[in-house]
Amino acid sequence: MFSARYFLCCGAVLLALAPARAAGPEVVSAEKIWDRAPHNAFTDLIRWHDKWYCTFREAEAHVGGNGKLRVLESADGKAWESAATVAGFSRCSWRSRASRQ
Questions:
Q1: Is the pTM of this model over 0.85?
Q2: Residue 3 to residues 6, 8, 17, Cα–Cα distance (Å)
Q3: 86 strand-pairing partners
Q4: Residue of 31, 43, 90, 95 with fewest CB within 10 Å of its CB?
Q5: Boundaries of domain holding 66
Q6: Looking at the domain assignment, is residue 94 inside a domain?
Q7: What are the tens digits of pLDDT across the range 24-76?
Q8: Is 28 within the bounds of a domain?
Q9: Who's near 37: CB < 8 A, 6+ residues apart?
């Protein structure tokens, strides 16, 4: 029969040989990068072709109004510039076009 000491030693070896879990993402800072509209929301952030892109809706208020889609671009994640603005569409017209695809 195996002793408890044997099982403890085997367990310690298995723990030592087990791969370490990769560290998950963590927030290292949070900074305002845009505030030129009364309401900015629904953000997304991607890295593409060695640049950061942040997209969001900007409008006069959270609900209603003529919102715009804003795209910001940054090479270093610190200095941001407006790369594009998409306007002139309504939610209904966007949905009707999207449903046809």
A1: no
A2: 5, 9, 22
A3: 69
A4: 31
A5: 36-101
A6: yes
A7: 888 888 999 999 999 999 999 999 999 999 999 999 888 877 889 999 999 99
A8: no
A9: 58, 59, 60, 68, 70
